[in-house]
Amino acid sequence: MKSRTRKILKWFLVVIFMLFIFYMSSREGDKSTGDSSAVINLIKLYLGIDLDMISNGNASFIVRKTAHATEYLILFLLVYMAVKEYENVERKILLSLIITICYSISDEVHQYFVPGREMRIFDVMIDSIGASIGAILLKIKDRLKKIHL
């Protein structure tokens, strides 16, 4: 695949994933709560984990915040793969973190206008933790690569 086509494809994946996050954030509060309940039921059914010992509100909270962190971990990794103008790993990581966290902030502002949803700084922090986990994993990978060379 040509280099230009590859670059376009990588940024296309970033945009598609951002649109997915936007779509999920556009869902009204009741629908979003229903999604969390469905995930809890799937965990009970397929993983055999008894979430009944956790009150339903806490289980929903854990599912929602884990989803936030996971979404932004994935977004960070996609942005990192798309950012190729820097050879320096630290610069790519920093630029990817900035883009991901800025998108998280814009997503929370967007949720302010969605019925039944709220803008929460706490969610930006959870999203940033997800992106930071991605950054830490990439830094570890880079160090291991240098050790084995």
Automatic annotation (TrEMBL):
InterPro entries: VanZ-like. Residues 11-140 form the VanZ-like domain. It holds the Pfam family VanZ. Keywords: Membrane, Transmembrane, Transmembrane helix. The chain crosses the membrane at residues 7-25, 61-81. The keyword Transmembrane helix applies. This is Putative membrane protein. It comes from Clostridium bornimense.
